[in-house]
Amino acid sequence: MAVSVPVEELLGEVAALGETPTLLVACGFDGALAPLGDDRALQQSSEALNVLLALPGTTVAVISRRPADEVAELMFLSGAKGGLRMIAPDDVEPLRRELDAVALVIDADPDSLTGLADADLGVLVDEESDPDADPEQRVYRVTEAEDVVEVLEELVNARRH
């Protein structure tokens, strides 16, 4: 399903999304924003999402099977900026269609990455290797939540310019 690449190569793909007029950034909470086994999102990821929330043409969604109010308590997000959505893994593709947006989907749950369109970019957060991955798919693999920080910070830089 996903191909492992150096984070630097993935960042080039992410930077290209900066020019997208309407972008959905959907990030899984457990394993992507918060390291597995940790109940708090990494502060740097939350800060990057806060910036993305404030940028025009950008919708941010947090993917989780947990109750939305619980996730909100475990993140460092400003609810006053609006635009933040809390969604389940199977709601990513319908939200992308509703917004008529290109999507960047980052999650440890592969179910969130199903139904991506050709222009979308998926990032699976998983330590496993997948030698049979299709390199033509725009689904990449990173190993940990710290890699997600780099991806989100690159997207912030690209969207600002």
Automatic annotation (TrEMBL):
What protein name applies here?
Uncharacterized protein
